[in-house]
Design a protein that fits this description.
By secondary structure, the chain is mainly alpha-helical. It is built from six helices and no strands.
Length: 136
């Protein structure tokens, strides 16, 4: 299990920590960590060098978070912090998220409307600063 301090240190070491993100982490870390743990349990295998499986793994976790949001048990900010927690705690998820970011940055404009809400918000935050952040 990852502590808030270890997570913040990981983000800082990867030059992904911003004041807004740190504020959100302090505000919702426990809920985000719980969601990240659940999301990891619902993540399919990324395969071996499979771009499509990596994308599907990322989308699967995002759809899981979208379901929690729809049921009112998770907020979008918590979901985005959870995606960052997953990046820090699981190498396979980090590969899946990196694949998503790489492919989404080169996708035609307007294609993001078909993405799960959580993936779209993650992308919007990533585009805003070229690092995965939370919506704010």
């Amino acid at each position: 299990m990852m502590s808030k301090e270890v997570f913040i240190s990981w983000l800082n070491n990867h030059e992904s920590l911003t004041a807004d993100l740190e504020f959100d982490i302090h505000d919702c870390f426990e809920a985000a960590l719980d969601a990240a743990t659940q999301g990891l349990a619902h993540m399919p295998d990324i395969g071996f060098m499979s771009h499509s499986k990596r994308l599907e793994s990322f989308y699967s976790v995002c759809r899981f978070f979208d379901g929690l949001i729809a049921r009112g048990t998770l907020e979008i900010t918590e979901a985005l912090v959870a995606l960052n927690i997953l990046r820090a705690m699981d190498r396979n998820f980090r590969k899946a998220a990196d694949e998503f970011t790489h492919q989404a940055m080169s996708a035609p404009l307007g294609q993001s409307e078909a993405l799960p809400v959580t993936a779209r918000e993650y992308l919007n935050a990533s585009v805003d600063s070229f690092t995965p952040l939370v919506a704010g």
